[in-house]
Write a structure and sequence with these properties.
It is a single chain. The protein is mainly beta. It is built from 4 helices and 30 strands. The protein has 3 domains: 131 residues, Immunoglobulin-like; 112 residues, Immunoglobulin-like (Sandwich), CATH 2.60.40.10; 138 residues, no CATH class. 4% of the residues lie in helices and 44% in strands. The protein is globular and about 65 Å long. The protein starts with a strand and ends in a 6-residue tail after the last strand.
């Protein structure tokens, strides 16, 4: 999920009312994906959503809309409500897939772009989800015992694809395995090939591409009332026209954190409101990282609340007078996970090591996606999905 403008915030994508489930629907099943976002005004704007089928690398597939959609594209977002009793005015928009106007006909990756009818050249927000037609079974594990170190700073994923009743003519050329860590796209692993191929299984083992930096547990803060400091909040106050919340100053971590986290997620919540989507206020949250100045890159906040992307809205700025990094952003009341990531200049993949450290026993969540493009086919099927967690799979 990613917002392309500061006018659109708090993107949510929830499968079957389970906020922690990966956004992967079962083809032909009863799964429902709920999408919502806030536009920061009380003026109604006509938004439409455009659905595009993509290959395993999230590039548009070489197929037509009629091939993957039963219904019409560019449908309007018809559900909307103005915020109530909030100092910051916003309008919450929502829709579901599938719905009475549209259903999906193929498995694979889907991109949903939100278009403002007044400016339809650039989408204001983007969601990504997948649809699976289960044809294979996965067995998977994650370990701190890797091909480059033993219980130190990395985790290695291994898995086997079992397909006794599903024909794969050319496993090395037709099957694409993709592995995500905590829903990040900057360090996603693609293009990995099976180490062993048998008559009915593909084994992805002893592969250095499947070694991930361990990172550390996410930092957390919670604020459900703009007048009351919550977890990890040192000060709150109102300075017209916004409430402000200042977090305790963070420092680089030298040891593995024992703090429980939600693997980078955030959850909107308010102490007083019952209709959270429209009764949770917004406030400016101020982050401070007490770390020495580094050249050759930038620190960013990382987490689902910023789409796990790197932009001006989550970039830390060095305050030379006080020797710290600072950043402020407008967030909705709730519980948030965040980390400080270092992105080298010109780089596409961030590292957590400078501010968070890397530890083999970090509670990371991995999602394994298995795609199949048969000979002469024009799109990538998603035929299997596996989800694993370091601590759950090693206890």
């Amino acid at each position: 999920m990613q917002s392309h403008t500061s006018r659109v915030r708090s993107l949510q994508m929830v499968l079957n009312d389970d906020a922690q489930a990966p956004p992967v629907m079962r083809l032909g099943g009863d799964d429902v994906l709920y999408f919502s976002f806030d536009e920061m005004s009380h003026e109604y704007r006509r938004f439409t959503y455009r659905i595009t089928h993509c290959n395993y690398l999230w590039e548009p597939s070489d197929i037509f809309e009629i091939d993957y959609l039963d219904g019409f594209n560019d449908m309007p977002v018809e559900e909307w409500e103005n915020s109530e009793n909030t100092t910051v005015l916003y309008t919450n928009y929502s829709f579901t897939i599938p719905n009475e106007n549209i259903r999906l006909k193929l498995s694979g990756n889907y991109k949903v772009e939100i278009i403002d009818d007044e400016d339809d050249e650039q989408p204001v927000a983007e969601y990504r989800f997948s649809v699976v037609e289960p044809r294979v079974a996965l067995s998977a594990a994650v370990s701190g015992n890797t091909d480059i170190d033993l219980n130190r700073t990395h985790q290695q994923v291994s898995f086997t694809v079992h397909h006794p009743k599903y024909n794969i003519s050319n496993p090395a050329g037709e099957v694409y395995a993709v592995v995500h860590q905590n829903r990040r796209f900057d360090n996603v692993v693609t293009g990995v090939k099976p180490a062993r191929i048998t008559g009915n299984s593909l084994q992805y083992v002893y592969n250095e591409k499947l070694i991930f930096d361990g990172g550390n547990e996410y930092r957390r803060f919670e604020i459900t009332d703009p007048d009351i400091p919550g977890m990890n909040i040192t000060r709150v106050g109102y300075s017209e026209p916004y409430y402000h919340a200042e977090l305790y100053t963070d420092a680089p971590q030298k040891f593995h954190s024992t703090q429980r986290d939600e693997n980078g997620r955030y959850f909107v919540n308010t102490l007083e409101g019952y209709g959270t989507d429209i009764e949770a206020d917004y406030l400016f949250v101020h982050f401070t990282l007490d770390a020495p100045r580094r050249d050759g890159g930038s620190y960013y906040l990382l987490g689902d609340f910023c789409g796990n992307t790197f932009g001006s809205d989550n970039k830390m700025i060095y305050d030379a007078a006080n020797g710290v990094y600072r950043m402020s952003t407008l967030l909705k009341l709730g519980l948030y996970n965040y980390s400080y990531a270092w992105l080298p200049d010109g780089g596409g993949s961030a590292t957590l090591e400078p501010a968070e450290g890397d530890f083999y026993d970090t509670d990371n969540e991995y999602l394994i996606l298995i795609y199949h493009r048969e000979f002469a086919a024009r799109y990538d099927k998603l035929i299997g999905v596996g989800r694993l967690n370091y601590k759950l799979d090693n206890n």
